[in-house]
Amino acid sequence: MRWLRALLGDRVLLVLLLALPPLAWATTLPLARWPALIDFDTLAALAGLLVLTKAVEQSHALHLAGMRLVRRVPGERSLAVGLVIAAALLSMVLTNDVALFVLLPFTLSLGRLAQLPVARLVVFEALAVNAGSALTPIGNPQNLFLWHRSGVGFGDFMLAMLPVVALACGLLVAFAVCGFRGRALTLLPPAEQPALDRPLMLHALALYAPFLVLMHLHRAPLACALVLGLFAWWRPRLLARMDWGLILVFALMFVDLGLLAGLAPVRAAVAGLGVDQPARLYWIGIGLSQLISNVPAAILLARLSDDWHTLAVAVSVGGFGCVVGSLANLIALRLAGREGRMLLFHLWSLPFLLLLALLVRWLPPG
């Protein structure tokens, strides 16, 4: 079957599956408790967003909006900087995952209209949502977890994270200026212009607001059920075109990383590194994020340190570098399909991590 061949050809999925047997052998966690490792709210949110963004994409609204934009933007560099800034700003209020679901389909549509380095744009948008989302408690999962744990106010959390976010965003804009050319955009030969499916677009856009509200109210399963139910009744073929393998990848990632973080040798090794010292906590948080992603790293290290600010900064910076550092990185490359190149991502993300990590250490203590 086509869907089975697609799953077997998914390298990330295969790696996660191959990692399960040794982790199952090493862990003492009973199999019956493995489902508790999965963040089902996140999976529900991803599923609902997949449907809504696919609906907007299939309505051809992004294609038509892209045509207008490429006729007005003066050049490649201006477009890249604009998309980076937009991604960072959106991630502050819509979370990093939602910002990607909004911008990436639009970016891919732009690539079909003009000669653009789409893969590079995808990489920079992934970096941008990691940078911007670090500002607010609702920007990403690790911030939400650490904010609740810290007991500080919403505004106080933002003020504490502002210097790091400003530095990261400024550095990213500088990278974008260097990474994209100033040449004028060249429109590709026009193909047959698709007609706007207005009902599909309006239905999808109308569902975005209640979907996001329900997510912020921690009712992601209800939001997902609402979206899936309506489209299953109205446009069932749209659901058949979804990349449901992405949901499976994330479910396995939660299990694999949860088992790894729960291993006694891992916990003992981290505990023995002296995380009571802010400087060590900072570098350990960055390094651990490269191995098990920044959300599990935040949860594990929060058991060993009450220094929420240093930890929040560390795992935010740790979202850059290796692709596993942040789930948003994997979402970006997955949504981009063939345009998202793993090697290209690391060619930009690793130098960015090294430079940002050193610069952040020069900031005054928060």
Explain what you see:
It is a single chain. By secondary structure, this protein is mostly helical. The protein has one domain. The chain has helices spanning 2-8, 11-26, 40-58, 61-72, 76-94, 96-111, 118-133, 141-150, 154-179, 198-216, 220-234, 236-240, 245-262, 264-271, 278-292, 294-302, 308-317, 327-336, 342-361. α3 (40-58) packs antiparallel against α10 and α8 packs antiparallel against α17. It is found in: Membrane. Its main location: membrane. Keywords: Membrane, Transmembrane, Transmembrane helix, Transport.
Explain the layout of strands and helices.
Elements: H1 2-8, H2 11-26, H3 40-58, H4 61-72, H5 76-94, H6 96-111, H7 118-133, H8 141-150, H9 154-179, H10 198-216, H11 220-234, H12 236-240, H13 245-262, H14 264-271, H15 278-292, H16 294-302, H17 308-317, H18 327-336, H19 342-361
